[in-house]
Amino acid sequence: MLCDEKRCKMPEFQACLNDLPHSDFNVIFKSIPSFYQNFKAKDGANCFVSGIPGSFYERLFPSKSLHLVHSSYNIYWHSRLLMNHINFFQLRTSPPQVSDAYLKQFEKDFSRFLQIRSEEIVVDTCF
Question: What InterPro entries does the entry give (predicted)?
Answer without folding.
Answer: MeTrfase_7 (IPR005299), SAM-dependent_MTases_sf (IPR029063)
